[in-house]
Structures are given as structure tokens and as C-alpha cells.
Amino acid sequence: MVLVPDAWSLLCVCMLNKQAGGADENPGGPRMRLPKMKIPAKIWRHRKHKNQHGDDQPDGGHEEEEEEQQEEERLDDLSRKLILREEELFTQDGRSEEEEDRLLKDFESLSVRVWMAVHSSFVTTATPAGRPDVLRSAVDTILQQETQDQRWTERPADSAPVWRPLRWLRTHNLLLQKMVEKQLKDAEENETGDTGQLSSVTKRQVCRLGKRVKEDLLTAAEAVRHCYPSRMDVLNIYGGLYHQAFAARLAQLCSSELDLDDCSYLLFWVNHYYPDEILKHKELDGIKTACLGSLLQPETLGRLEEQYLSHRQEKVKLWLSTALKKEEESWLSGKTPELIDCYYFSPLAIDVIQVVNSSLTEFSCAIKDQNKAQRLTIHLENFLSSYRKSVEDLAKANPSNLHPVLKATLVCEQQLRDYISGQAEGLAEEQKRRCLDTLSALRDCCYQCLTFPLHGKIKVFLSQLWTPPWVDGSLPVVDQLLSFLSQQLADLSDLKPACKQPLVCDLHQDLVAQYMKKTMKTRVKSRQQQVAGSERMVEDAKKMDGFFREQGCGSAPYLSETLCSVAEILRLQDPASVHLEVVDLARRFPDFSGAHVSALLSLKFGLSAADVRSIRASVEENRPLDASANQSPPFFSRVKVKWINNKINQIKS
């Protein structure tokens, strides 16, 4: 960035500063009229010469520049010499006004060169005033004069020069403020640059202001602050000045009503880009951002955020409801979902995820309080509830395209579940849990509809368990059942494998649960039948496990192990051995309740009431208090044992 030094404006700032403090600094009134401040002739000739001839200067001009450069590089040396002259002059008894006048003019000449050097802080061209060593010398000069001001305050007031205190440090800070304001004013009015693609005047103004703030602060950090002693903390001075000037201009822009696009863009700068990308830039690490605060006042920021959130809420709600309505219309029209890679598919989940994700991404940059994201995510939660209800209503209507629609719905359910579980930002844990519960209900509805024809058949097949032909091995109940399931599952070939696998695994659990329920309800007539039946159970468990592994469900070996454990309990005749096996089963399955224990023990021969009570008590004593990695997933909760009261009464009688 480039500043065009305006020497006359600088001198006006200095003169105003002197006049403002004159009454306090010289309570008795000046002893002489301050001479008119002038630009040193050599600087003026050099500026005039540059304006006329540009960069193509004759050799004489170069010699003059070199001579001037040598002089300007000695600003701090000149300052020290003037201080020595001042000390000598004002310690003499008889000093002339002519000597004082000449010294004052020299101070004024020095001040012009100092302020020119400061004013050229951001000049990147190779002008003498823009060189770091010149600025460093100017800063040293300012600090020398501040120290000299302090010395004179410790002496009698009537002995001090009329120009003391100079207060150049205050003038320096005022000059920085004017420079910053001018920088931003120029940036805002400059229509050139790469902001033309922005759609509104307000956006272009904010962008130009923000970019200038970033560029100038980086220049201050990389080039300017090294010219100042660390105790002056000039980077924070610039940071505060740019923050105040930027905030003042944004406040003016916010004083009139902003449309939604301008509101969103301004919030993006205020809540995200300025605090996170500019102030946290690695080169600006020294800026004390906590002291700066927000660019906007709380009431203004709150008004803009409410305007943004209210509109965004309505948009998200409208988009989601429109997407669901379009999906429902497709169902009711009798259309079959499209096939992609031979699997049924619906774009609904992708559309919903894009709407929610884009809205949350924009929200995270526009709104400071991220907890307010729930004002948007509540519409995702409401959408899922409406989606589930629509699918349930469709299942009740049972149209001809129901199964293809359900298969496409399972794909949507999985995509939404993956997004909510791992990628969705802004969802509170409780809200996430409710969304996942709704998706589980939606998935269960689809499973039930797709597998409903199977459940009745499974029950018929399993009714032959524990009959004499099954016990002696002449009736291959499970073989027939698995052959039937193989034919039925072929109808799910157009269901995406990632969705088919959990459905098949759920069917596996349901089959084993019905098998277990049938076993626990059976009244075995003899020990021999019990032992033979336990052998059939082990064989059936292995067959079912192998079948479902072939169907892609190999993640539930505990189901086979559970049947084998129950078979082992039925095979054992020694009460102590039965005791150990039952306790081990209860430790592995937290949902193996007391009712299940009683139902299982009621099948055993040779157990006394005391044995049963002892086993039940031991089970309760040895249950783990906390979840363990050795525990299996819930299974026995699927096995209902409402008949157990009758069993217990039989044992007691």
C-alpha cells in the first residue's frame, strides 16, 4: 500500500497540537511570537523536482538525493545536537531572542522531517523517508525529545523554552490516527481492485476496508514495528487504531437497513474473517485481541444476528418441507425409485444433507454464539419426524411400489445416520440422540415391512423344535427354514449391500431369539430328550451361523455362542456345573434377567428348589456393575418370558 505524503497537512497537525496545548504549557503567555513553520527548502526542492521529472533524474539530482539521504539518516544525531544547543542557550544568563528564534526554527525543521518519516511508514518504494533506518532514527528522535520534555518539567517553569514541552509522542500518536483514518477512507473510495465480483456496494466497501486493515497490519508487523522499541508496543497501537476506524465505518453502514445478503456478508467479516483470519494471523501474534472486542456494539450485532437467523430458519424449514413433499408426491404417483448400480436409490438424503450442512457452515461463520445453531438444527429434527411418519403412513397404505420405496428409504436412512453421527456440526448431544432415535424407528419400520412375510413362516418352522422327530434328527427343521430364507432374501438383491447387511443381521437376531423363546417354553419329558435336544441345538447354531455369514452378516458370533451355552446347561446334570454355566451366561449378557434364569432352570431335571434359589442368588451377586468389553450386546431382551410366573409356581408346588 502507498501513502502520498502531504507535508502541509502534517504541519497543520503539528501546529494544531502546539496551539491546543499552548495555554497550559505557558501559563504566563509566550514571550515571543512563534515564527511561521516552513518546509525545509531542500525537502521542498526535492519534492518539486520529483513531481516535474519523475524517476528520470539527472546525475545532479542523484547527488542531491544522496546528500539529503545522508542528512535524513542522522535525525537522532540532529536531535541530540539541538538538545545540547538548547541546554547551552537556556543555561546562559544573557541569551538573545535571535538565538532562540534560530533554535526554534531548527526544531521545526527537524519536526517536519520526523513527521515525514513517520507519515511514510507504509511507503514501499525506495524513497528516503520510507526507509526503515530513517523511521527508526525518527522514532529515536521522538523519544529523545520526550525525555527532554521531562527534564524541563523538573526545572523552574520560567526557565524553560517557550516551545517546551514539545509532546512529540502525543503528536506521533495523533498522526498515526489520522494516517489510519486516511488509509481506510482511501480504501473505501477506491473502486479498483478485485472486489468487482461482489454483488452490492456494501459488500465491496466492507471487503475493501477489511483487506486494507489486513494489509496494513501485516506491513506494520513485518516492517514498521521493528523500527520502534518494544516498550512502545506499536503493533498494538496500530491494531487498536485500525480496529476503531474499521468499527466506526461498519457502524455507519449498519445505521441503515441492510438486506439479507449484505447482513450475512457483514456478519461474516465481524464474527469470522476479522477475528479468526486477520487478528489470528501468525504475523500478528503480538496483537492483544482480547482487548479489542467486537467490531460492532452488542445491540447492533444482536439485531443483525436476529435478522440473519430469522430468515435462515424460514429458508431451512421451507427447503426441507419442499424436499419431503416432492418425495411424497413421487411415492403417491406410483413411481418406482431409480436404480443406480442395480440398487434402489433416492436423492432425498443428499438434498437434505446439503441444505443442512451448507446452512450450518454459513452459520458458523456468521454467528458468534454457536449454541444458536439449534435454531436451525431443530428443523432437521422436525423433518426426520415428518419423514418417519410419512413412511409409516405409506406402509399402512401398502401401495404396489412399497418395497422399492422402502429399499430407497433405507439408503436415505443410512446416509442421514452417517451424517448426524459423525459430520453434522451444531447438533447438541441430546438433539443428536433424538435424531438417531427417530432414524432407528424409521429403519425398524422398513425392516418390519420388508421381513413381515418371513416372521410368520419362521414361527411355523420353529414350532417343530423339541418334537420327537427333531430330537432324533429325522426332521431337519433348521435346514428347511434356511432354504426358505435363502429364497426370500434373494428378493433383496436390489437393496444396497450396506443397508441389506444390518437387515439380515437383524433377521438373524430375531431368528435366534424365537429359537430361544421356543426352547424356554418347551417342557422336556426326560433327561435323555434334554441331552439329545442339546446336541441338535449345537448343530442348529452352527448351521444358522454359517448361513448368515454367507449372507454377509459375520459380526454376531455371540448368537451362536449363546445357543451353545444354553445347550450346555441343558446337557449338564450336575447342579454345581449348571450353577457355573448359568452364572457365566449372566456375566456375559447383562440383559439375562432373573426371569430368564428361572425360565431356563425350569427346564432342568434334578434341580431342587434350594438349588434354584442358590443359582439365582449367585447370579445376582456376580453380575458386573459396569459395562465390560467381555460383555455381549443385548440379546435376551428380545426373548419375552411372560409365562415365567406359571413356571415358578410349578417349581414351588
TrEMBL record:
Question: Which GO terms fall under molecular function for this chain's record?
Answer: SNARE binding
Q: One Pfam annotation, family name?
A: Sec6
Q: Where is the composition biased (Acidic residues)?
A: 62-75
Q: Which GO terms describe its cellular component?
A: exocyst
Q: Which family does it belong to?
A: Belongs to the SEC6 family.
What keywords sit in the KW lines? Signal
What biological processes does GO assign it?
exocyst localization; exocytosis
Question: What broad taxonomic lineage does this protein's source fall under?
Answer: Eukaryota, Metazoa, Chordata, Craniata, Vertebrata
Q: Gene3D superfamilies from the xrefs?
A: Exocyst complex component Sec6, C-terminal domain
| Stretches with biased composition (Basic and acidic residues) | 52-61
Please give the residue ranges the record annotates as the region Disordered.
46-77
Residues annotated as signal peptide: 1-22
KW Signal (keyword) present = yes
Q: Does the keyword Electron transport apply?
A: no
* Organism of this sequence: Poecilia latipinna
Please identify the protein, giving its name as recorded.
Answer: Tumor necrosis factor alpha-induced protein 2-like
